[in-house]
Amino acid sequence: LLGIRPWAALLVERRGERVVVLGGGGFVGGAIMRALTEAGFAAFAAHRHPVGGPAAAGVCDATDPVVVRNTLLGAGCVVNAVLGDAASMLAATRNITAAASMLGLRRVVHLSSMAVYGPTVGLVQESAKLIGGRSYADAKIACEAASGADAIILRPGIVYGPGGEQWAGRIGRLLRAGRLGDLGEAGDGRCNLIHARDVGAAVVAALARPGLEGRIFNLSTPAPPRWNQVFFAFGRAIGAVPVARVAAWRLMVEGRVLTPLLHLAKIGGMSARLPAAMPRSLLALFGQDIMLDYHMADQALGFARTADADGLGECAAWFLRRYGKPRR
Amino acid sequence: MCRLVFAQIWQATTVIVDASNIADGTKLPADLCIIGAGVAGIAVALEFEHSRISVLLLEAGGVKEAAATQAFYDGDVIDRSLHPPLTRYRRCALGGSSGIWGGRCVPFDPIDFEARPWVPRSGWPLRYEDLLPYYKRASWLCEAGEFAYSADEAFPDGMPAILSRFRGRHFTDTTLERFSCPTNFGMRYRKRLLAARNITVLLRASAVELDEGGDGQSVAEVSVATLGGLRFSVQPRYVVLAAGGLEVPRLLLASRRQQPAGIGNAHDQVGRCYMSHIAGTIGKVSLPAAFGRPCHGYRTSDDGTYCRRRFALTADAQQRLGVGNFIARLHHPAPRDPSHRTGVLSALFFARPAIRFEYALRLHGHGKLSARDWLRHLCNVAFDLPDTCRFAWHWLRDHSLAERKFPSVIVRPKGGQYSVDFHAEQAPNPQSRVTLGTKRDALGMPKLVVDWRVTPLDMRTVREALAALKADFSQTGCATLEYDPDEVEACALRYGAYGGHHIGTARMSASPQDGVVDAQCRVHGMDNLFIAGSAVFPTSSQANPTLTIAALALRLADGLKRDLSVKLGCC
User: Fold this and answer.
1) pLDDT tier for residue B11 given thresholds of 50, 70 and 90
2) Cβ of A245 and B188 within 8 Å?
3) Does position A298 have pLDDT exceeding 60, yes or no?
4) Could you give the angle at the alpha carbon of B368 between the alpha carbons of B365 and B354, nearest 5°?
5) What mean pLDDT is reported for chain B?
6) Among candidate residues B42, B54, B108, B111, the one with its CA nearest the CA of residue B556
7) Least CA distance to A245: which residue of chain B?
8) Mean pLDDT of A242-248
9) A289 vs B143, B195, B300: nearest CB
């Protein structure tokens, strides 16, 4: 370990330091918890709902400043992985920033998103203009602004991995239903994959390495495949073959007709039985030719990445366990 | 003013612009000027997507085909019975001829790259292995799926043989042809071209001359003209000529300001060795009932691509027989002859006026049909109405309305008799050539004169290969092939230069004496002029050219990136 990561020695110094992960019960938060625990930190998952599993965890309403302050008492660092509606995320970020400042926490790591770049295309560095444009993206921009000058901001791309319902479960179900596949031009966007385990490794590095205060890092695979390639590779691995062409008109119906109907049905309380929706923002992402510049994260954080093929293989194995083999 | 207009266009978000927006006399700078926005041109341009290299993609046509720009292609054909008019099988528009192609993707075979003593002027200055990595990428670019062109690779769980128990001495049935959507590169990649701010596509901008610099070893300017009378030029660091197998020699030969014979033509090689493919349908294939039904149609691979087996003459057999490359498919009988008793085929025959010229060619025939034959066609449709309606529905759903189209008509003839559809290599022949004529087009460019010729070797390839296929069939007893050997030549030449495959007019060679470009597709003796497309193929193979065009274009782009990274310190 020492040979691979020059900062690994610092981990030894930090061993046992208490790190609170707000949102630590979620998919990404869980991966961060595992990485921190493996690295020797005394990680504590704070979540709005009770969290199962072996990790130390507790219930925490991150929108309540007093609760956040109490949760961070005795901690050396905090990781903000809170996910929710725009108001909740912003309130949580403000509370974490204020509490961290008041308690003199050594380090704050804020988990943002590539969504902050909005519809930008091409190679995007961390210094690029933040455009946002959708409620989630705008909320993430506001959270970044509220995260304090010393916070380390991580902007991951598509965080995937076994157990990730959003980018493995949902995509797999849509592939099996024939609603996703070869999207043609609409699937030409770059899929800036980053394994959840690698996000955890990046957080560990962000906590351990000195002199990173106030820095921002994109987290992505070095050569992001196109979404069509991902759909084919994942579709084949889960037996959703042939990965058929999905016509442009069908995608338009998905985005403009089916998604609003599903949304209405969800409001009506039928969410449990409904298929996954493909909102227009998701369809736009599949066509967005954006490549996150990963070099800065490589240089400053230096964490090892999971190969895309290996990560997708893990996801496929998880998907087959979770949803079974396809019916022929 | 000129510079201002261009600067505005250069910085505009939308970078597909009509050349009429360029001011007369403008000199446009570009790191890379690509002439022709077809398969090759777009493949090269996309390789520089989002890079620091400024790319200018010139297309003589507009977004869609138009009579006025299509007329640029007009020219003379020496023997009209052997070669279609020059405005056919080509499309002057964004995407080029990919707007009308059938989508068949097949890589060249390793033997095609080798020097074969029995095929004069054969041999490429590169190996199959050199192109293999690019074939893999090209297959995706053409939307033909992964590079799995054998039945075992594409269908690990098994794919039915065309004829059960077929084991040929000369032929194998394990290779596949895969089908693109078929992808119109202009429509399919327009969004990516638009999104890349370093790429500018100029429509209705015809390159009319390449002007060399003082040293005569590089292109200093590309002169561009529009139908509206504008003239401007591009000052590129590098030029890629990707205008198609006929327009490439035309532009090289017409660029004679410093070299009277034209650029790259010091050894009189430009326009020579013009090849296409020898194709036709022949004979009657009868199948014994005991061997079951043939599987001559398509199977869908995991990536959703339609794949089809064919009978391919092996490399050993080519050497043994001393012939070129050759493949054959089990095909339905000629629709024109009502004796097939198949309603679908008769309906197709009736529908031929509604089918595009390039695809209806085989439905037409020589001479008039008798009233009795017309009646028999009507009876075929009437008595076979359920099958005909089923086919119509299948065609509407799987071809007309589908984005990935079912590639061709596959029917089981009621009479149980099939035919053989073949596609054969044409050997390079310096006498088969394109030259400049005396007539000029609307922009003042000399029109082409095409003198396409076949050689005895071409006919021998078809004759010997058909005989070998017949022998293979009879040896295994899985089918019998009957045909009149005296009709082979007529059958092979019935459609003339087939399929709009314009090959070899600026062939690749190790030495300038034998060709026009080197193994990197750089014009011999020129520093910054490259050619992409089927014009550079030294031999034609049995394969349709598009996949290889794309693969060579990707390889060329890789070489250019290396050059540019040295010269400009980017890429």
Assistant:
1) very low
2) no
3) yes
4) 55
5) 93
6) B42
7) B404
8) 93
9) B195
What pLDDT, on the 0 to 100 scale, is given for residue B228? 94
Instruction: State whether A182 and B189 contact (CB < 8 Å).
Output: no
Is the ipTM reported for this complex over the cut 0.90? no
Chain B residues within 8 A of A287 when measuring between CB atoms? 191
Residue corresponding to tokens 């997708």: A312
What is the four-CA torsion angle of B568, B244, B197, A194, rounded to 10 degrees? -90
Structure-token pair, residue B463: 């004759």
Residue partners of A221: CB distance under 8 A and separation at least 6: A157, A192, A193, A194, A294, A305, A308
Do A289 and B181 lie within an 8 Å CB cutoff?
no
For residue B303, give how far its alpha carbon lies from the nearest alpha carbon of chain A (Å): 5
- Rounded to a whole number of angstroms, the distance from the CA of A244 to the nearest CA of chain B is 5
Asked if A287 and B191 come within 8 Å (Cβ–Cβ), the reply is: yes
Q: Do B192 and A287 touch (CB under 8 A)?
A: no
Measured CA to CA in angstroms, residue B51 lies from A128, B32, B46, B561 at distances of 16, 12, 10, 10
Which residue, A317, A319, A283, is CA-closest to A173? A319
Distance CA B291, CA B351 (A): 34
Chain A residue with Cα closest to B401: A247
User: DSSP of A174-218, one letter per residue?
Assistant: HHHTTSSSB-GGGG-SB--EEEHHHHHHHHHHHHHSTT-TT-EEE
pLDDT band, very low/low/confident/very high, at A10 (cuts 50, 70, 90): low
Strand A42-47 relative to strand A18-22, pairing: parallel
For B339, how many CA atoms within 13 A lie in the half-sphere containing its CB? 7
Residue B547: name the closest of B196, B221, B82, B185 by CA: B185
> H/E element holding B325?
none
> Would you place residue A7 in the very low, low, confident or very high pLDDT band (cuts 50, 70, 90)?
low
In order of start, what are the domains of chain B with their CATH numbers?
A: 2-133+182-275+430-452+500-568 (3.50.50.60), 149-173+281-428+454-493 (no CATH)
Residue A107 reports pLDDT greater than 70: yes
Residue A208: the pLDDT is 92
CA-nearest residue to B405 within chain A is A245
Asked if residue B89 has pLDDT above 60, the reply is yes
Cross-chain residue pair B303–A242, CB shorter than 8 Å = yes
pTM of the model: 0.92
Distance, in Å, from the CA atom of B533 to the CA atom of B545, rounded to the nearest integer, reads: 9
What's the pLDDT band for A4 if we cut at 50, 70, 90? very low
